[in-house]
Amino acid sequence: MARVLHWALCSVGLAGVTLAAESPELSLGEAVELALKKYPAVAVEREQAAAAAEGVRLARTAYLPRADLLGQVNRATHNNVFGLVLPQGVIPGMSGPVLGTNALTSVWGSAVGALVSWEPFDFGLRSAQVDAAEAGRRRADASAARADFEVGAATADAFLAVLAAEQGVLATQAGLERTNVVQRIVDALVKAELRPGADAARARAEAALAQTQLVHAEQAAAVAHAGLAQWLALEPSRIAVRPGALLTLPPAAPGMAGSLNDHPAAREQSAAVEEAGARQRALERSWFPRFSLQAASYARGTGASPDGATGGALTGLGPNIQNWAVGLTVSFPLADWPALRARQAAEAHRGRAEAARSAQVLAELGGRVAKAQAALEGAWHAARLTPVQLEAARVAEQQATARYRAGLGTLVEVADAVRLVTQSATDDALAKLGVWRALLGLAVARGDIKPFLDAAGR
């Protein structure tokens, strides 16, 4: 079963190699750039930032005068009564003297008019509203930058995972080849009756185990390719990666100086604090009188006369009485004070919450940096030891094989030595990538992966 699965995965792998050959190899930097172009979350944040920019334009239109035009034609009765109707939106308004009639005859009425209104001053309300919109735009821009950073970091991590999985496949393939060599040696010795038949069975078992390990390694590589494909919007079989400098130890850690306040997550949260403060300042400017300069011009026509008589069939269709007016209107929402105070208190609480969340973000980032530095130190230490481990394992394998051929050792010793070489080779390959992944983790914790990309050769 393991052999069948192995050949099936090999067939898939060959198909993937063929398709990958048709596609150019991607370096780490190219993969990150492609993800920033294609991953949907990036487009979402950028569109939201564009919408916030339009919100600033909308807030600035409050400085413009307002102009309303009206045109109306109606056919209605002309009975008018004396009395008052409270403000409502059901009964149409009516002008003219009370005629004392209650007939169902109707006349034409018409009206056209224009009203221009403008606030000459507003005690800073419009400016505060524009500032709040600007703060919202800055927060949206910071959110888009944070999304770009997170997508780039996740893509880089997925890229390193693909390289690690591919190195695991290569090490496991080399282990399988070593196991096959041992099996051929054992078969020859068993046929010459220099070793018992049990050794041949054990050698076949070791070969099957190595083949199974290769199947698992190829499966892990396929999963890693699928993980990278998620960010690149490509078919996993069409992804080919170019390691660049990632398969060698970096000469030194790339420079990553900078304050945690410059981290994209910290900048986004700082923008949220500023936005909350801007909204609060806008509310503080809301409870002031509103002054409006107004100019109106209108004309009306009616088919009814003040004495109750009506004109011809078309009388009133055209406006024939003109008026104009210019004035200053002052309004003051006196009863809005309790609601406004409640809104100001709520906004103050939101501002303090955002400030506390900002401190929380900085504390979490500091913890991530400390953990990433510790991981980097451990990765560097392991990367210095694995070459020694690999060299010793190879010597031990050679000695064990020589002892077995001479009849001084057992097959168990040879099998253990072969597995140790395979594991040591895998550890050595992954140790170098482990240093790079630790460097990436530190770059992500500090909030800037550009120095890491430059060190990796883009």
The top-level CATH class is Mainly Alpha
General form = elongated
CATH topology annotation: Outer membrane efflux proteins (OEP)
Low-confidence stretches: 1-21
Overall mean pLDDT score? 86
Distance between the termini: 42 Å
Report strand order across the widest sheet.
1-2-3-4
Number of domains: 1
Q: Give the CATH architecture.
A: Up-down Bundle
SS summary, helix count = 9
Structural class: alpha+beta
H/E element sequence? HHHEEHHHEEHHH
Give the biggest beta sheet: 4 strands, antiparallel
Compute the CA-based radius of gyration. Answer: 40 Å
* Tally of DSSP β-strands: 4
Task: Give the DSSP E fraction (strand runs of 2 or more residues).
Answer: 5-15%
CATH superfamily: Outer membrane efflux proteins (OEP)
Helix content: 55-70%
Q: In short, what is this structure?
A:
With 458 residues, the chain is α+β, with helices and mostly antiparallel strands. It has helices at 2-22, 28-38, 40-60, 125-191, 197-232, 264-284, 337-405, 411-446, 450-455; strands spanning 66-77, 106-118, 290-302, 321-331. The protein has a single domain (23-64, 121-288, 332-455), classed as Outer membrane efflux proteins (OEP), CATH 1.20.1600.
Molecular structure report:
The chain has 458 residues and is α+β, with helices and mostly antiparallel strands. The protein has a single domain (23-64, 121-288, 332-455), classed as Outer membrane efflux proteins (OEP). The protein has 9 helices and 4 strands, in the order H-H-H-E-E-H-H-H-E-E-H-H-H. It has helices at 2-22, 28-38, 40-60, 125-191, 197-232, 264-284, 337-405, 411-446, 450-455; strands at 66-77, 106-118, 290-302, 321-331. A 4-stranded antiparallel β-sheet has the order 1-2-3-4, with no helix packed on it. Helix 3 (40-60) runs antiparallel to helix 4 (125-191), helix 4 packs antiparallel against helix 6 and helix 6 (264-284) runs antiparallel to helix 7 (337-405). The longest helix has 69 residues, at 337-405. It is elongated. It starts with a helix and ends with a helix.
